[in-house]
User: Fold these one by one.
Assistant:
Number 1:
Amino acid sequence: MNFELPPELTAMREALRKFVKAELEPLEDQIDRSGELPPGLLPLMGKHGYLSMRLPTEVGGAGMGLFPYALMLEEFSRSHRIFGLVASGGGGLTPIAIARHGSREQREKYLTGLINGTLRTAFALTEPAAGSDNSAMTTRAEKKDGGWVINGRKHYINSAHDADFITVIAITDAVKRTRGGVTAFLVDKGTPGFNVTRVDTTMGSAVIKLAEIEFDNCKVPDSARLGPEGQGFNLAKESLRDGRMGVSCSCIGMADRLLAMSAAHAKTRITFGKPLAERQAIQWMLADSEVDIAAARAMVYDTLRQIDEGKDVGTAPSICKLYCSEMVGRVADRAVQIHGGMGIVQGYPVERMYRDVRHYRIGEGSSEVQRMLIAKDVLKRV
Ligand SMILES: Cc1cc2nc3c(=O)[nH]c(=O)nc-3n(C[C@H](O)[C@H](O)[C@H](O)COP(=O)(O)OP(=O)(O)OC[C@H]3O[C@@H](n4cnc5c(N)ncnc54)[C@H](O)[C@@H]3O)c2cc1C
């Protein structure tokens, strides 16, 4: 199914496809074998403007909307999940939060490095006892001597071990809590009392690492506060909305490549004297994946367009994230089945992608959390 995009987005997508083919796809194997990102990758993305598409022009960005940015994630994710993750800036869209809510000093300190790919960041919300229910968080920041003292522990923080600074969400008013008692802080690596205590690898590609971080009487100045005191939970929610749309597009990109690989394999693999592509059982799997992807694109592109027009899209980002993360799981499962043994052998993209897509039903709010939000809205309407 062909989704017509405005001419400028079509041209942008063509340029992105060329970049992915020439620069990213050749790195896939090396990244998987080493479990590390090539040091020049972020600066290369920065040079092409891919780390600053959404940032306002006043701070050196391209001032684009969410739609072009999400299309970029779709194209990057066609290659390897990690490319979309790094391009979204710490998984939590920290650069855009700094551009929108940061002080002049913070914008000057961090944005140039984030734009040119010399600084890495991470976004720390989840805690051992506060995952789906992040309102149960216990990490707190107390005012002291004109600054703040942070204590607590966060875990599953994507790329926190590599980050030059981290956005931390902490309780600053134990009575108000998530109703105006949560604040965001930017904490630099090397700040005394801030430590990476564990790095977890996951069932996905070895390059995707989640870290546990600890704040032990970690003192930061008031100038480390991101946005007004008490607004940290709103800032996190704003970031999650855009993050869910980004995840949705990443799922579409991965599903599209899995379907293309499945169709190509089905045309060349001969069993019982005929290509797999001539068997109805295989054709139905290809057809189901095509329908899945088309439905995903329809809901995601329409929601992105409405967001960029400034409309209130309600629970649409949850609907998109839920549908797309489950859709890509189905497409990946069919891709493995169509590839047979090749689909489960390590070193072949289908096997890696099958494992990587499993993350999507948990990160940025699990499927159950999205269903809770959607159902709450449905019940409110009657
Ligand atoms: C790849 C990846 C990257 C991540 N990166 C980050 C990051 O950069 N920063 C960050 O802060 N966090 C990050 N996370 C953490 C992620 O946000 C949490 O894992 C997620 O919110 C779920 O929390 P949990 O793991 O504690 O699961 P739990 O909250 O313990 O939930 C366990 C299971 O129970 C279900 N469940 C929970 N409550 C209910 C309920 N009321 N009804 C029905 N079912 C329920 C959940 O859906 C889940 O299936 C990342 C996670 C992944 C997988």
Number 2:
Amino acid sequence: MAELPKTWDDWITNFGEWQDRVGFDREWLGDFDLSILFDWDRAGDNIEFGDYAGHTKWERALQVPHQNIRDALIAMITVQGDTEFASVEQQRHLLASAPTDYDRYAAARIMAEEQRHGWQMAYLLMTYFGQQGRREAQKLLERNAQDGDRLLGAFNRPMPHWLDFFCYTMFVDRDGKYQLGMLSTSSFKPLAASMGPMLKEESFHLGTGSNGLRRVIKAGVIPLDLLQRYINKWVATAHDLFGTDSSTSATWAYVWGVKGRWDERKKLESGVDVDKDALNEESRGHYHDEIVKEVEKLNGYLPEGCGVTLSVPHENFNREIGNFGGKKCTIDGALWEGSDEEYAEYLLTVLPNAEDEKALKELFKQQWVEDKPMTPRQTASGIGASV
Ligand SMILES: [Fe+2]
Ligand SMILES: [Fe+2]
């Protein structure tokens, strides 16, 4: 590991080296400002749930009553920051092959915002968590998605092309929305206050995904069975991102008020009981319901009489972690009853295969995604313009 950054400025210098290493040209940021943003008003003054409910929210690490809680905070901020930089490493190469000017702008803006999110998490680590925080802030710049050593599986997966990118922003960034939402009520006030601005930016990323897939459908070039396989691929990955079932770390995070449920404030107001042993399952369930609705909306754009509807695979399908991790399940969630060989054959029909990749290379030469004009403000931002 490189020498630990002592100050925020040191870390920024190291961040510049990371940009150079992953090949992200600073010019591509246009007028985008990599800055630290807090929304203190919405962060809440008092701890909202768990054993410390009613106490004043912690504003400095020294106010956090136990080292275990500090460790949990550091771990959570680190994982969040790690995903932000990882996604830039996964996506950066796509700028050169953007199907339209708008898409190049959108991808460059997403990468700019993910960098800002990573900054924000590094800033929390550097500012509030001493030597341990500085070490983690530095490591955020040293793990690499291309080497496969980012902390979460989804963020080490290669994203070869733009159909992957649209599915990724639709499904994987949407997991991010849930994680940020659950941290927005955190007992650690600087973390809670970081979430408002990040959530606002994140909504553009989800929109890029849903809008992109809608434009893909409208262009009518990509076969729908092929599109379904890419949906299956990224949904399974996104389901994993909610963590293991019956997670004790999720339980503790709740008990300490560090990380809440999705829509925690609403749930508290209406008295929805918490099941502390199934927190990850609960948030995954909300996420699943949301993507089912999103895919239903996409179905509204399918050509009439095409005889196909797109769908979301069951939560058991192709999971790497959780109760169904490594188990052979169908896209409907049933355990596979045939042989391993037959299952391998089955997966070729429901996940992207070599033929799909080959077909896409040709299809990408056509106008495979409907064009979208840029607004004057987007053009003036200069984001992605110099790619
Ligand atoms: Fe982000
Ligand atoms: Fe994002």
